[in-house]
Amino acid sequence: MSQGHDKKGRPLVAVTGMGVVTSLGIGKIDNWAALSQGRSGIRAISRFPTDGLRTTIAGTVDTLNSTPYSAPSLSIAMALEAAKEALDEARVGSNGAFPGPLFLATPPAELEWPQRRALYERPPTTNDTGYRRLLASARGSDWSEMQSLFQFSSVANHVAQRLGTRGIPISVSTACASGATAIQLGVEAIRRGETDIAICIGTDSSVQIEALIRFSLLSALSTSNNSPEQASKPFSKNRDGFVMAEGAGALVLESYRGAQMRGARTLGFIRGCGEKADDYHRTRSKPDGTAIIGAIRNAIDDAGISPDEVDYVNAHGTSTPENDKMEYLSLKAVLGDRVANVPISSNKSMIGHTLSAAGAIEAVFSLMTIRNGLLPPTINYAVPDAEIPMDVVPNVARQANVQTVLSNSFGFGGQNASLVLAAP
User: Fold this and answer.
1) Which entry of 158, 200, 273, 316 is annotated as an active-site residue?
2) Of the residues 158, 176, 200, 273, which is catalytic?
3) Which residues form a coiled coil (predicted)?
């Protein structure tokens, strides 16, 4: 690396600001305090009735609920909260005029059951029933406010307007890889010279009754309702599914040279990005792991490093029986025998799975791991799985000198993305 470029002659991409919101709290200070102490943010759902549901727990963010509440409005509120913290730290764009583009990861926006029910129960304007009545009611209502929230690009549009970003905001929805994909798009834009600065955000408020039922029907969720804080147990033999969660992560990315010119502090670098699609199944990974292995290798190759230089892995680690085993097998294929000794932990054991936001939130946590020299633990690790012989940093945080982190994000639909983050 020389004069602000990497080994491949591309602009180095620096992180100059970070912000985060999760079930553990708002802001990096509260989140890091909880992570380093091994505290869980999983709790019983209070937002809607859960009678009769198989899963009644989640990692909810209950302090930012807007009125009237909706999933998109909470996604916007969390994104803006994380962005404010990131912009303040980067000392840029706090006046509502961010000098670069927005890349935002978000789930597809759709009318949830409460909104559909409210529309259906309006005084009928037609004798039709069912879906035709719903459409007629929608046409007869003040559709503009609902339309401004419930369309795919709505969250990004609202956030871009508030932050004053440049150009058309880019919305990304690649399932649980979305947050990492948004960061990759920002990195690539800077490398191509299209911008010197970008803000990348992942935000997700999918803890809604409809989404909860959908994931439950897939048998993907933990049903450990009686002990919420112990429900998410990645890599443990007794893991029984992931815990839905919500949150947001924001990163200000800049060309290293541009950051230096304006006197910004560099918190770390995004050294490499890798992705690879899996065409095997909508919810399962290809048994030979080639797509996940490919995403990890692509990120390491893009970073211009060898697998031996990875000091720590921020695992996808969802706590589902299949995903955790596939991640181990894929890491073993890339890291070789080092897979047994490299620390590999999952913060989803504490915050749950934040879905579209996960890659961005975990990128923030990865850089905080580097800066603080402390490995967040995998809590609830009481029953080791003999088929996953890894150092998961069990239950208690550990001090370590970390220079390079591999952060994995794998999603339904065959979406796989990995990032390599490094110390400044």
Assistant:
1) 316
2) 176
3) none
